[in-house]
Amino acid sequence: MITVIAVSLLAITVVGIGVYQFLQYQREQDQEQLNSRVYRSYVRNTDEAPAPEEPDQPAAAPTPAKPSQRQLNQEMTRKLLAHPGVTPGAGFSAPGVKSTGVVIIDAIDQAQAREKASSAARPAAAIANPSPAS
After folding, report:
1. Segment holding 26, helix H or strand E
2. Exposure b/e, 13-45, CB count within 10 A at least 16 = b
3. Which positions ≥6 away from 75 have C-beta within 8 Å?
4. Other C-beta atoms within 10 Å of 7: how many?
5. Fewer CB within 10 Å: N-end or C-end of the chain?
6. What average pLDDT does range 4-21 have in this prediction?
7. pLDDT tens-digit profile of 58-84?
8. Distance of alpha carbon 72 from alpha carbon 66, whole angstroms
């Protein structure tokens, strides 16, 4: 009798663990599908829309060739790898990482240039106005 109860409890435990793991797997799959749908929607909505044609331009003017996505990707990679603050890691080729990295290093470079320009302007202003503040 005790053996039957022990085997039953063991079977219920094994089935319970199996059901729990299956439900956990289902939740992960649902989350991945949701993430995938959101990402696809993001990509679809952020694709560049063609610019409206301007009638002011003459028809004979040649339009410059738009660089391909691969060329843009290679250019971003070169720019990132040339920057001293960038160290590529495991997710370097993930979607959006390079473009975000380029935006970040551009912002850092602009901030450093502004800081350098403002610090260079301060001593000149101090020399130009030597009157004491009394």
Report:
1. helix 2-46
2. eeeeeeeeeeeeeeeeeeeeeeeeeeeeeeeee
3. 67
4. 10
5. C
6. 96
7. 555 556 667 788 888 888 888 888 888
8. 10
Cα distance between residue 65 and residue 62, in whole Å: 9
Name residue 133's amino acid. A
**d(C-alpha 126, C-alpha 41), whole Å:** 55
Q: In this structure, which amino acid lies at residue 126?
A: A
Please write the tens of the pLDDT for every residue from 74-132: 888 888 888 888 888 888 878 788 888 888 988 888 998 999 888 877 665 555 555 55
pLDDT of residue 87: 83
> Can you spell out the DSSP letters for 83-134?
STT----TTTTSTTHHHHHHHHHHHHHHHHHHHHHHHHHHHHHHHH------
